[in-house]
Amino acid sequence: MGFFYVKFGEQELIHAVVPLLxxxxxxxxxxxLAHPRTQLVPKSTFKLLSKLVFxxxxxxxxxxxxxxxxxxxxxxxxxxxxxxxIISTVTGCVLGLLVAAICRPPPEFFRFTVIVTGFGxxxxxxxxxVGSICHDSGNSFGPDCHTTGTAYVSLAQWVSVLxxxxxxxxxxxxxxxxxEVVEEDGEIEIVHEDLPNDLSRPxxxxxxxxxxxxxxxxxxxxxxxxxxxxxxxxxxxTSIPDPDSLEDGHERPRSPKSIRCLAEPRMxxxxxxxxxxxxxxxxxxxxxxxxxxxxxxxxxxxxxxxxYGYDAPxxxxxxxxxxxxxxxxxxxxxxLGGMIAEGPNESKLxxxxxxxxxxxxxxxxxxLGIGVVLLADKLNLLIEGDRMFRFVLLxxxxxxxxxxxxAIASLRGYAVSEASALLxxxxxxxxxxxxxxxxIYFKLLLTYV
Length: 449
Description:
It is globular, with a radius of gyration of 23 Å. It has a two-stranded antiparallel ribbon. A hairpin with a 2-residue loop joins β1 and β2. By secondary structure, the protein is mainly α. The N and C termini lie close together (10 Å). The chain has two domains: 10-171 and 282-445, Na+/H+ antiporter like fold; 227-278, no CATH class. 63% of the residues lie in helices and 3% in strands.
């Protein structure tokens, strides 16, 4: 069955390059519309467009294509997709550790360097690439290219969302050593030190999480975990939050919850406090709700026959949603162009660390991804002869860091300018690295019929 193929003709090269040229054209149009010198379209319009992508276009795309193709049999065959997201994230974090050890960023950005290298864009950008490739009826992935490709990407988003609200959220916690802890009358006051606060909220910060300022909690801009797990010798006992005060806003030492905590081991209690303050409740965003509904309806044959299909009673609804979903790809690329037009922010990360992250994320990680997918293919873990399945797996290693980092950084008040600058340069250079690796991926996948 061989994964590699030697011959790579002119026609295959066209199929690999032309879809990316389409996306590049859309991005350039977005840059021209949003460029400060022209201002043909105001920034507020791009923010509104990003909200439409998040709340309407992307959910419609997921619901239409995932629900139509999902089944119990397919779900059992697709298990490696979410696993691959975890593998790519872990591999990227290991590369991030190496970058941090070699390039030695400022100490306050050590965790930032690790997580921004490890966590890639597994949603909008991959969907745009798949949509552009499948737009041509003569594509190399068959007539069901768009439906299956979107279904694969949508399934991976569940894992990505969980990682965002757990691993990424806590890794982006402001470092304790760069805050001043002041105790007054038994209360802890956290004073920010040299942490940027961009009240204008660049388009980058809202591109994949519109309205994220409404998700701010009491502890989102403070070093919460560091205080909870701090040694008593370093900080006073009052610096460890009380669970009752966290949940109800004031202390109730005689409540049943406090009595329960007395019976808990100290470490278990600290872990429970952190778990209770993890914003997992925010995972119910429009795209994840659409994924959940698509899975529920697609896995129940009776419901699926009502909603999906040419003769389905609700086919008029799915047709309408399909028309709306057609705006997803151009909107995503226009918003990306608008973000690039804003230009990079000032960054304290350092040129050496920035280049290290770019090389690790955009050049080294995709090469390792080829090895992972090749090994999985050798072990017969992948769907036999499915090119799109392998293409989506490979793309999960190839994309730049998730744009959501800008929103998370702003939400947590940590490395805001650094995240903006790094994401800008990553997406600029990704235009070239994605093109190069897409050609390589097409060459590797052409043996499958």
